[in-house]
Design goal:
The chain has 4 domains: 171 residues, no CATH class; 206 residues, no CATH class; 149 residues, Immunoglobulin-like; 78 residues, Immunoglobulin-like (Sandwich). It has 10 helices and 30 strands. The chain is globular. It is an alpha+beta fold.
């Protein structure tokens, strides 16, 4: 075995001498791929191979000689691999797509590569037509830092069948997954609403991948990405086309109504961030090519994830005479790949443009992500990461050139681009101090225990929204932004002052258990671990935001029948210490026999009396929506409650005695 390894290494090293170098180690992960029988990797179909990734952690050097040391491998297993891409296919350095497989190659196998969440579909980005080697990497990381999903990335050096291939970026393929594009996976059976409404991934692109165009809009061709073109049904096709058609008509009519205009169709913040990252980089493909959209079930159409940003920051296909990435024009109206008209119509809408400008100025202020100083620091950090590998890339392919000059020109481009955008993006004073309604996320049941063997425990999830003000709030346009939890309040629905409403994951289950219907039913389940819940208005202004956790310092409401309740609606509900875990929501199936219990008068006007034949330990008073109004401890056979200050209506009295728990419904007049 040792003789074989030594011989392999000698042959391996000699193969690089022909390129004027010997590759033995790297500060980057080393990806080694050997196809079965040394087979050529075609465009299609994928061929079988074995892959090893030598990587021991940040700051630890990786040696090619460790390829047979399992302790030094981040991955060792079977894959299927093919070449991918469009224009980059013409170059000798190919991009690749691969799928991780089970040991017996009979099924796909989800694995975590280089710290990324487990999945089985991956891409090796060859960084072609891109002498800086950092444009894609920079843009993807900026987009994620802005709060959007973008493919995770890791630089590596790649060897295929003993041939050193240079610097690549290992990254995630765009697909529906809770850790990627977080949408419901739609099936061919989902042809009736609400299931028909998602999830979908659609892209504007060329058909070089072999997928047929789904529809065209203003000269731009759109392709179904998920579901696949061969799997999508007529009903699903019509639904997706209808969403884009509504976006086109509402923006053409300059309709910014929260009830039926473009804010009711699209997630405005995602479109704003998509525009900003593509315009800052002056992406020549933006809006017409490699432009993705996604839509969850019952959710709005979202722009993104961003993809393929190598022709940016002044770079283009100079080999073929193109030079389109400029500092002084908008990519959606420069006469090139302008995209569908809705992009320009959105920009020209005063409300949308105001929020676009507001977001831009937030992101470019001192210390923020898109500030020149911050961008320079990110560029320098990235260049430092790959600086050792750059000469090897240049020696292998001759495609880098003067890297320092390329990076300097890129920084100059960004500086000029920021200045031009500052001068042309317009004011934001009209949307700088938007007053949002006093709505508070006040209760969260994120991990219920199993009440009924026939019902999924997740169906008992709920969220309470409290109107912490003295005026009725119109809920038109208000929704949960981001991904994961989906709900948009119906147009013209309202919530009364100083009152709360509950949203449930399954309305019928909630009603069966608690005896009354929730205000609405949200789509998707809450995470049992942690979730960032963001309540926003139709233009993305945050009304309230809570990110809970199932670990300390958050109260324990993790599968034990308890839920999180905000102790004071005027407190900061982003802080764990302002929440408690309680079981105060009374369920119908908790009502037991009330032998010997007297509660009078009923109806009650002023004072309620409770008597029992056993010692009363505790009495809790809830309204019919399950809000806890009073909670007192006793040590006697009788108890009294002052009801004078309570609003008229139905209440539930929960009496806990030495011998049991009893619940009685009363009326306050």
């Amino acid at each position: 075995m040792k003789t074989f390894c030594l011989l392999f290494f000698i042959v391996f090293a000699q193969s690089f001498i022909s390129f004027g170098q010997t590759f033995t180690s790297s500060n980057l992960p080393i990806v080694i791929i050997n196809t079965d029988n040394g087979n050529y990797i075609p465009d299609d179909p994928k061929v079988l191979a074995r892959m090893k990734i030598i990587y021991q952690g940040v700051g630890i050097r990786n040696f090619l000689s460790d390829q047979n040391n399992l302790e030094k491998l981040n991955y060792f297993g079977r894959i299927t691999i093919e070449t991918r891409g469009s224009s980059s296919k013409v170059l000798e350095k190919k991009p690749y797509g691969f799928t991780t497989k089970s040991a017996d190659i009979t099924s796909n196998e989800n694995v975590s590569l280089l710290g990324m969440p487990s999945e089985h579909d991956w891409i090796l980005n060859s960084l072609n037509f891109e002498p800086s080697l950092i444009r894609d990497y920079i843009c993807y990381n900026l987009s994620r830092a802005m709060g959007n999903y973008a493919t995770r990335t890791a630089y590596c050096e790649v060897v295929i069948n003993g041939n050193y291939k240079g610097v690549y970026v290992l990254q995630e393929k765009i697909k529906s997954d809770k850790n990627r594009v977080d949408i419901v996976e739609i099936t061919p059976e989902d042809n009736i609403l609400p299931n028909l409404s998602g999830g979908y991934i659609t892209k504007a692109d060329k058909d070089t991948g072999g997928d047929p165009f789904a529809f065209s809009m203003d000269g731009v061709n759109y392709i179904h990405h998920e579901p696949n073109p061969e799997d999508i049904t007529i009903e699903q096709y019509s639904y997706v086309y209808g969403v884009f058609t509504k976006l086109k008509t509402t923006t053409a009519a300059n309709n910014g109504s929260l009830a039926n205009g473009f804010p009711s169709v699209i997630d405005v913040p995602s479109f704003i961030d998509f525009i900003l990252i593509n315009e800052l980089s002056a992406n020549v493909d933006a809006y017409s090519l490699s432009t993705f959209f996604h839509k969850d079930r019952n959710g709005k159409l979202r722009a993104g994830p961003i993809w393929d940003l190598n022709l940016t920051f002044g770079n283009d296909l100079f080999l073929w005479g193109y030079d389109r990435s400029k500092t002084d024009s908008w990519q959606f109206s420069d006469g090139g790949n302008d995209g569908s008209a809705f992009w320009r119509n959105l920009f020209n809408n005063p409300q949308f443009k105001c929020y676009l400008s507001k977001r831009w100025h937030e992101l470019t202020q001192t210390g923020s992500l898109l500030n020149q100083t911050s961008l320079d620091a990110l560029i320098d950090e990235t260049v430092n990461l790959i600086s050792e590998a750059i000469p090897r890339e240049e020696m292998r392919w001759g495609s880098v050139g003067d890297h320092s000059l390329e990076i300097n020109n890129m920084k100059i481009f960004i500086r000029e681009r920021i200045k031009w955008m500052n001068d042309h993006i317009g004011p934001y004073s009209n949307c700088s101090n938007v007053v949002t309604p006093p709505l508070v996320i006040s209760e969260i049941m994120y991990h219920p225990n199993k009440f009924n063997e026939l019902t999924d425990s997740d169906d008992y999830e709920f969220i309470e929204i409290l109107n912490n003000g003295n005026s009725t709030v119109n809920l038109t346009g208000i929704y949960f932004s981001g991904t994961g939890l989906v709900y948009q309040f119906p147009a013209n629905s309202t919530i009364a002052p100083n009152s709360a409403i509950k949203l449930a994951s399954h309305a019928a289950t909630f009603k069966t258990k608690y005896g009354y219907a929730p205000f609405g039913q949200f789509t998707r389940h809450l995470s049992d671990k942690s979730q960032d819940i963001v309540l926003s208005d139709g233009f993305g202004n945050k009304i309230d935001q809570v990110q809970y956790f199932d670990s300390s310092p958050w109260p324990d409401a993790d599968g034990n029948g308890l839920f999180l309740k905000l102790t004071d609606p005027n407190s900061d509900n982003s802080m764990a210490e302002n929440w408690t875990a309680i079981s105060g929501l009374v369920a119908i199936d908790e009502i037991e026999s009330d032998d010997g219990l007297l509660i009078y008068p009923n109806p009650v006007v002023t004072e309620l009396t409770i008597k029992a034949i056993q010692r009363i330990l505790r009495v809790q008073l809830f309204d019919i929506q399950g809000r806890l109004f009073q909670d007192q401890e006793f040590s006697d056979e009788s108890a009294k409650f002052d009801m004078r200050l309570l609003p008229d209506g139905f209440y539930l009295v929960k009496v806990i005695t030495q011998n049991g728990t009893y619940i009685r419904k009363i009326v306050k007049e």
